[in-house]
Amino acid sequence: MSNHYHLAVETPEGNLVEGMRWLQGTFGIRCNALRGERGHVFQSRYKSLVIEEGRPLLGLVNYIHLNPVRAGLVTVAKLRAYEWSSYPKFFKRRPPQPLRRERFLDALEFPDSAVGMRQYERQLEFAEESDPAARDALARRYCRGWAVASEEYRRDLKKIYAQLKEPGGWGGPEVTELREENGSGRSPLS
Which helix (H) or strand (E) holds 2? Predict the structure, then answer.
């Protein structure tokens, strides 16, 4: 995309902030050096969501892969040739190490192979053409909130968060939503 990017990142060590600081800092330095400029490259902080495995993760991957299609840059049929996406790399016999296609292909019960990716590609084409309203709902679902998950998964996360101490200066719409869902008007992290 010309003005933003999307990532689905697993952080088993819970170090997303450190990783994003490195990624955006490195990108900003290189971008400024390349363009002979100084200052901020990104307008604001990144947005992060907790995503449950299975269908919610598949929905996020679909959202990310279809973003250039929604922006009118390519069609689903030409998405495999779109160089600014990781999508074409998933079709390789062995995708680059950080890419884990089995994480979303399993949700569709497709094999972790190029054959599974071709099945996934057909599923994306069908989803994109069959129901524009569902496509718009998918976009809204992954653009707000703090978690995309089942109610049970969200309840479990809230219990874990309730045991943590809230960092100073923590806020924003995600925290407001957590406070509202907690029913107490205060963050479960206080």
Answer: none
